[in-house]
């Protein structure tokens, strides 16, 4: 039987998940709903009982051409005539299982590291169950939570060896993240063949409907997916296209939803107004679904965050992800304290960010040790701290993080680096006086959000447009005779943002000639 791994159901008969329901009835409903492969996983039942259940399940699955696999128990698989087994790292070895079950049996193996995956693939596993993706109550003693980045690393390792092994990922997969997991791992050199799920189907009130819903979700890209592969940009293209995007923002007046810190509320709202967006400063997660329906973008800024605020951020993130509205993460000071490091991990696990914008210290924290080899990621306060990376290292890190997250990443600094994983640019605009005014980093996040709202088809170009408008306005303001320091700079800066917006509306594009953008070949 040829296996389709796309929606892989793993059973669980515990009270916490199955409840008082009959497992066979639940699996029948799930198969009718569209699961494509089933694994019977039961760590406690006696052998005879397990064989009886396996036979009952097999009569259902085989009627739908759905393979049935048995967790760990080669004997039960043989007795029930199941199509194969799924084995853990501490169970029977692949060669022995193959010898007993024969060449046509499906043999899958649990793997949580690149080494385990390569060993299992070379030993002849038909597929790998890669996990644990997200924390789950379902399996005790899961070794490590590896996130989508861990899954992607394993897929990339597998892509580098010549084995035709299939892959599914497992752990905490549910309707709210299934599409994102597939999307964020799709930039690896090997793609997932499916998602493996326990509680989101077995524990669902209506397992048939839950399976059908998941099947529908995984057969489409998520609402926030980039619509097409953007073209490579030349500096000339950029300068030609930026003014029209500034003009379109003024015409569209997109909603710019800020969940930002206590320090910058007023300044961020004024910057949004000056560029032509419509700001709303709402930290209430309960109203995010209504706001997400208004076709704008959301900035999540964790500058003065707490557990309560984070819960609101996660609600809003989910609402915008469902609506396909762009979300910008400004992970202010995310490497400074343990609470912030945990906070940013929870946000990254909780949803998709179209753009991540941070200083060198923040971007290093998010990238983590796998991408920032041998570098200290402890931050002092919300400042970036001393730079330890060369320009090329910054550009390479930004590109690698964007490829890993399948989004756009900006590292700010005297030179800004911006990448979508395929295209990377350096921007050398801005002015040192921005560093003397609080919130100028945060309000750049607000600006980028507004631009991504109106130019979703190319989020990198949208972010770049926001950066150029913002930084050229800062240069113009700083050079004015009436600006004598940070106090007089702020109103002049708002005026220059407003002026550029007016120039773009009139088609007066000379302002963009000040852009210092370099498209990098890495
Ligand atoms: N294996 P749920 S996690 C059976 O990491 C299993 O190998 C895992 O359950 C692994 O879909 C897991 O309810 C349980 O989160 C997954």
TrEMBL record:
Keyword Lipoprotein annotated: no
Stored Gene3D superfamilies: 3.40.1190.20, Aldolase class I
InterPro entries reported for this sequence: Aldolase_TIM, Hyethyz_kinase, Ribokinase-like, ThiamineP_synth_sf, ThiamineP_synth_TenI, TMP_synthase
Pathway(s) the chain acts in: Cofactor biosynthesis; thiamine diphosphate biosynthesis; 4-methyl-5-(2-phosphoethyl)-thiazole from 5-(2-hydroxyethyl)-4-methylthiazole: step 1/1; Cofactor biosynthesis; thiamine diphosphate biosynthesis; thiamine phosphate from 4-amino-2-methyl-5-diphosphomethylpyrimidine and 4-methyl-5-(2-phosphoethyl)-thiazole: step 1/1
Reactions performed catalytically: 2-(2-carboxy-4-methylthiazol-5-yl)ethyl phosphate + 4-amino-2-methyl-5-(diphosphooxymethyl)pyrimidine + 2 H(+) = thiamine phosphate + CO2 + diphosphate; 2-[(2R,5Z)-2-carboxy-4-methylthiazol-5(2H)-ylidene]ethyl phosphate + 4-amino-2-methyl-5-(diphosphooxymethyl)pyrimidine + 2 H(+) = thiamine phosphate + CO2 + diphosphate; 4-methyl-5-(2-phosphooxyethyl)-thiazole + 4-amino-2-methyl-5-(diphosphooxymethyl)pyrimidine + H(+) = thiamine phosphate + diphosphate; 5-(2-hydroxyethyl)-4-methylthiazole + ATP = 4-methyl-5-(2-phosphooxyethyl)-thiazole + ADP + H(+)
Cofactors (names): Mg(2+)
Name by which UniProt lists this protein: Thiamine phosphate synthase/TenI domain-containing protein
Organism whose genome encodes this protein: Cryomyces minteri
């Amino acid at each position: 039987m040829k296996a389709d791994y796309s929606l892989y159901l793993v059973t669980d008969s515990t009270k916490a998940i199955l409840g008082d329901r009959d497992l066979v009835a639940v699996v029948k409903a799930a198969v009718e709903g569209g699961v494509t492969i089933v694994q019977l996983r039961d760590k406690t039942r006696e052998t005879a009982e397990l064989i009886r259940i396996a036979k009952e399940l097999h009569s259902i699955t085989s009627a739908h051409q759905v393979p049935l696999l048995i967790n760990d128990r080669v004997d039960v698989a043989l007795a029930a005539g199941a199509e194969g087994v799924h084995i853990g790292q501490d169970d029977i070895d692949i060669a022995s299982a193959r010898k007993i079950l024969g060449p046509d049996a499906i043999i899958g193996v649990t793997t949580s590291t690149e080494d385990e995956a390569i060993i299992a693939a070379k030993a002849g596993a038909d597929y790998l169950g890669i996990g644990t993706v997200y924390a789950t109550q379902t399996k005790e003693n899961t070794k490590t939570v590896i996130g989508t980045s861990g899954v992607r690393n394993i897929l990339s390792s597998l892509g580098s060896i010549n084995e035709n092994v299939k892959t599914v990922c497992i752990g905490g997969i549910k309707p709210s993240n299934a599409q994102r997991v597939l999307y964020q791992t799709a930039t690896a050199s090997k793609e997932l063949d499916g998602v493996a799920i326990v509680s989101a189907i077995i524990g669902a009130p209506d397992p048939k409907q839950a399976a059908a819903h998941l099947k529908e979700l995984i057969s489409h890209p998520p609402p926030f997916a980039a619509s097409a592969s953007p073209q490579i940009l030349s500096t000339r293209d950029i300068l030609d296209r930026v003014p029209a995007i500034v003009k379109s923002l003024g015409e569209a007046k997109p909603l710019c939803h800020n969940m930002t810190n206590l320090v910058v509320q007023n300044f961020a709202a004024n910057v949004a107004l000056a560029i032509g967006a419509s700001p709303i400063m709402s930290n209430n997660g309960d109203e995010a679904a209504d706001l997400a329906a208004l076709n704008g973008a959301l900035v999540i800024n964790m500058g003065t965050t707490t557990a309560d605020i984070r819960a609101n951020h996660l609600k809003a993130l989910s609402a915008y992800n469902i609506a396909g509205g762009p979300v910008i993460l400004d992970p202010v000071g995310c490497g400074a304290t343990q609470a912030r490091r945990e906070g940013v991990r929870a946000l990254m696990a909780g949803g998709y960010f179209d753009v991540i914008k941070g200083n060198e210290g923040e971007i290093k924290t998010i990238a983590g040790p796998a991408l920032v080899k041998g570098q200290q990621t402890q931050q002092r306060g919300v400042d970036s701290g001393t730079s330890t990376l060369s320009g090329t290292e910054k550009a390479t890190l930004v590109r690698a993080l964007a490829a890993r997250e399948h989004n756009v990443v900006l590292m700010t600094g005297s030179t800004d680096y911006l990448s979508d994983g395929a295209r990377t640019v350096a921007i050398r605009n801005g002015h040192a006086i921005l560093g003397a005014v609080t919130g100028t980093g945060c309000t750049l996040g607000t600006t980028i959000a507004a631009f991504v709202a109106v130019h979703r088809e190319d989020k990198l170009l949208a972010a770049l447009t926001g950066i150029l408008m913002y930084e050229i306005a800062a240069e113009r303001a700083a050079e004015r005779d009436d600006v004598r320091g940070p106090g007089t700079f702020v109103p002049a800066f708002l005026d220059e943002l407003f002026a550029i917006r007016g120039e773009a509306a009139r088609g007066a594009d000379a302002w963009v000639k000040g852009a210092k953008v370099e498209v990098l070949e890495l």
